[in-house]
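ARCHIVE CARD
Drawer: 12
Card no.: 0347
Subject: one protein chain, sequence and derived structure
Cross-reference: see card 0346
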Amino acid sequence: MKIAIAGAGAMGGRIGLYLTESGQDVILLDKWQEHVEAMNNKGITVHSYGKQTNHKVSARHMGQYHEPVDLIILLTKALTAEETIDQLIQQGVITQSTKVMSIMNGLGHGDMLLKKLDKEQVILAVTMWSAGLKGPGELILEGTGNIEFGYPDGHKDEFVDQLKEILDQARLNGIISDDIVTSIWNKALVNCCFNTYCSVTNKRIGEFGAYEKADEMLIPLVKEIIEVGATKGAKLNLEATMDKFHKMYSPEVVGLHYPSMTQDIHNGRKTEVDFLTGAVSRFGDEAGIDTPYCDILTHLVHQIEK
């Protein structure tokens, strides 16, 4: 299968590398020219558990690739996703037979893709893999994970079976989802809560959870997201969510971690808040549901960005 990774940063690099080494025909596409040149000149340098290895891959600048592919794995920042899809359609990389699998964080990506592509072309996914970008062509890869994926309407066909086989051969542990919408909202719920609260308080997840009234901050926000998510078909549960949150505070889980949004703010980058609490606010407006917690958190993050 001819596969293009659109957005070959940390996570795109990891997935592209694993697929390449399993024997798939993979091209890594990115807009950071220095990163592309490093990958082509010396391969991807992987730092893992104190060891360093180099791995050969093929990479091109996003704007310089014009060959059609069978599958696009979309891993750009949410802010540039729509622009990237338009560009790849114009360049002939995405054709009517190309599948596009979005593994981006946040909400609303499926709606965007379905405006531009046939419903048989759009696959949504979430991943538990993690990765870090140390510098041009250099990745920090530790831990394990999986990729859960499926069509937005839940139907299955031969392609999803083939894709699972490809992911499994690449050690990416594919899971065909029975309800990918709920899975995406479950992950977004975590990000809506901890990306925003940790950003406005400048705390790690465990530090935020150590506040004795953290639940009083979280529960009203979670309830908002559950109510709005239900209008999109997501089946979310307050008790299960809070139990998961309490476990996350442990240093052995992600308690010592600054969420990605907090890292973006530390590094002077624009965040993806409009695709998290901002998206919940928009969906709430459409459904006539008040979302005061999501509204104010979105504004606070934008205040910090500026």
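Annotation on reverse: The chain is about 45% helix and 15% strand. Residues 180-201 form the longest helix (22 residues).
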